[in-house]
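Sat 14:20. Reprocessing the chain from the morning session after the first attempt stalled halfway. Input below, unchanged.
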Amino acid sequence: MNSKSRCKALAIAVFMTMAGQTGVATAHSLNGTLGKAVGATDLYQVTCSDGSGRLTVEVMDVAPAAGPLVSVQVLKGSMANNSTDRKDGDANYSPTIHTYGGDGPYYMLVNKSGPGSEIYAVEFHCETTNGDEHTGTSSFLLQDQ
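Finished this time. Tokens:
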């Protein structure tokens, strides 16, 4: 098994462990790996259904504990938000960000602060503007680095 396959297998195992411990049924979660290159970036398109007011996102830097920090950026039209998990490998997510772009597609980027492979988890969901209700959320991977 090559290095990238091992990283993906570890990411899946970590994600499955975390998923078994969370009680939030209305959120969407994904996990991924960033390669060794300094500029490695994963790009997702998240689509919020009619009635959405915002996309809520947070990221967790899962492993390795001594690697670069992992960040998430959300873009919609002329709006952009960023959040960084400032404590590597502690099982806590970054501060939650809300991007108020209504329904339709948002772009979500996950990247890191320096060289070295990273495993991450992202939790995201579309909500009404005041956050009282979750709305339809779908996503797909556009770029995997």
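The radius of gyration is 15 Å.
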